[in-house]
Specification:
- There is one protein chain.
- It is built from eight helices and eight strands.
- By secondary structure, it is of the alpha+beta class.
- The chain has a single domain, classed as Alpha-Beta Plaits (2-Layer Sandwich), CATH 3.30.70.100.
- The chain has an eight-stranded antiparallel β-barrel with strand order 1-3-2-8-5-7-6-4.
- Helix 5 runs antiparallel to helix 8.
- The longest helix has 12 residues.
Length: 247
């Protein structure tokens, strides 16, 4: 039997103009040595480039809620109080939600069907500059009962369309603690032109169009944010290896 998987999404809304200061604090205080209890479970840090302004999103994969609490406590030390005091002055809002992976393996290619990726070996390696990649965050908010319609509709897609949906997919998640009946999906692309081409390719599929028309009446809100991976190398482990050695 595999381990339990619990995912966490954190979102920090920064004060206008504070993004570079925030990344500077990460470089100084949250290094692979000092921040390892968190980085060993971190999927990635991302900055919004189009969508909610001045937002940093970071994702984690835990074995349990207790593990998440223990590892957070491990880096909350008196020695790091300067970091916490300084960082909090940059923030207007903090949000946390816990998630589970989608029930369809095709929608969870990194963590589904016995797969359980952890930071170490990048999932998408050999990229020239991970900081320039295009990442999309798609959020679908359903009325109660609507998520079941979405999962069932996906099951009926034809094989060719399913293959397109798998392209450049990081993962699809259901919020379990936080705003309920919410599905969040992440994809990455070499650039925004490729992201647009992928969207158009899906729209050209009759099977996809039928799927959308099936679940659309059960959606009360949908939005897409455009993100970029963190400029801090060890905070983008999907795309680059982390050097854990002390400097």
């Amino acid at each position: 039997m595999g381990r339990e998987m619990l995912f966490e999404r954190r979102a920090y809304t920064l004060r206008p103009g504070a993004r570079e200061t925030f990344w500077g604090l990460q470089r100084k205080w949250n290094t692979p040595v000092s921040f390892r209890p968190m980085l060993e479970h971190n999927i990635g840090y991302f900055a919004t480039v189009a969508g909610p302004a001045e937002r940093i999103v970071h994702l984690y994969r835990w074995d349990s809620y207790d593990q998440a609490k223990r590892n957070l406590a491990a880096i909350t030390t008196p020695e790091r109080m300067e970091y916490f005091v300084t960082a909090r002055k940059l923030l207007l809002r903090q949000e946390t939600a816990f998630l589970e992976a989608a029930p369809h393996a095709e929608l969870s290619p990194i963590w589904g069907s016995g797969r359980d990726w952890r930071p170490g070996t990048p999932v998408f390696p050999n990229l020239d500059d991970p900081a320039t990649l295009a990442v999309t965050e798609t959020v679908l908010d359903f009325v109660p009962g609507g998520v079941a319609v979405y999962w069932e509709g996906y099951r009926k897609l034809d094989d060719a369309t399913v293959e397109v949906t798998r392209q450049n997919l990081i993962g699809t998640f259901l919020v379990t603690t936080g705003p309920l009946h919410r599905v969040i999906q992440y994809r990455w692309f070499p650039n925004w032109q490729q992201a647009e081409k992928h969207r158009q390719k899906l729209e050209e599929s009759p099977s996809w169009s039928q799927f959308v028309e099936t679940y659309r009446p059960h959606v009360h809100e949908c939005h897409v944010a455009q993100l970029s991976p963190s400029p801090v190398p060890w905070m983008r482990p999907l795309f680059a290896a982390i050097d854990w050695s002390p400097k």
